[in-house]
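Students often ask why inverse folding is considered easier than folding. One informal answer: many sequences map to the same fold, so there is more than one right answer. In these notes we will look at a single instance of the problem. The structure comes first.
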């Protein structure tokens, strides 16, 4: 079965950096688009970044130039490097894959940006 396990969240000061990881299993990782979403308190879940099987990337305007998504197909892991973090980046971050006509989600990892 498909499993996505996020890690790397935590408390960081404004301007700081974090790297999130998502370890995937149960599907042919290198064939699928992988995405990071986030959900802030009281807000809807939003797409942050995506990376295609061939390595093409997409970023929300709010994170362009600050966040970098990457993947290691040998490790079946997708990463989100987050730099210059802002308080408004505070959210639970979720890993996502659309596979065999279903959306799969991890349980999320909390990122808190605060002084």
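Output (designed amino acids):
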């Amino acid at each position: 079965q498909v499993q996505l396990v996020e890690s790397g969240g935590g408390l960081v000061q404004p301007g700081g950096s974090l790297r999130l990881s998502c370890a995937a299993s149960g599907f042919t990782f290198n064939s699928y688009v992988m995405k990071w979403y986030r959900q802030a308190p009281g807000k809807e879940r939003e797409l942050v970044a995506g990376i295609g099987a061939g390595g093409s990337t997409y970023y929300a305007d709010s994170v362009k130039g600050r966040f970098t998504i990457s993947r290691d197909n040998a490790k079946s892991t997708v990463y989100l490097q987050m730099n210059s973090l802002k308080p408004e980046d505070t959210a639970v971050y979720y890993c996502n894959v659309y596979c065999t006509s279903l959306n799969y989600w991890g349980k999320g990892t909390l990122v808190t940006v605060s002084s």
